[in-house]
Amino acid sequence: MVEMNLNRRQFLKLSGAAAATLAVVELGFNEKKAYATTKEFKIAQATVTPTICCYCGVGCGILVHTKNNTVVYTEGDPDNPINEGKLCSKGTTIRQLYTSEKRLTKPLYRAPGSSKWEEKDWDWMLDMIASRTKETRDHSFVEVEQGITVNKTEKIASLGGAALDNEETYLLSKLMRGLGVVYLEHQARI
Ligand code: SF4
Known about the structure:
By secondary structure, this protein is of the alpha+beta class. Among the domains are: 47-99, Phosphorylase Kinase, domain 1; 108-185, no CATH class. The chain has six helices and eight strands. The longest helix is centred in the N-terminal third of the chain and has 22 residues, at 8-29. Residues 53, 55-56, 58-60, 83, 87-88, 90-91 line the site of iron/sulfur cluster. It holds the Pfam family TAT_signal.
């Protein structure tokens, strides 16, 4: 047995180191517990909103945790039958859609021949899209082709995104068919 002669100062130092070591050992042997505690703290009293990942056609379910109008955490939705709580690396980082400095918050318009983007409001932008769609459709509309009524335009195409749900896709399809658009696609099929 080795005897140790410690003064008060040395004793306190040694006790502190021992306590710190024990704490590390405790965390080391119980990583899951430490992680769960941190996560719980971050999302405590947050509002949880289920949504669908907008990145690809798989359509994984995501839970978005918000506090004070800010997205504090996102995770796979365990109740969603598509992904059962799992997310790929892209879906895992989806919070960056909200936090990124590069996120666009206003519509940008670049006039034909211009090299500059201008900020526009949504009313201006929607009117511009509607008038150009009508102009293009009216100029390119074909009623009859080789003796057959076709009522179509081949100068407009529609490409739906993964964030569209069934109902939105149905409405978009109706609108495009009504305009005579024949090039109608969806990201999930590409
Ligand atoms: S989490 Fe990944 S696989 Fe799932 S929809 Fe998003 S991008 Fe697609």
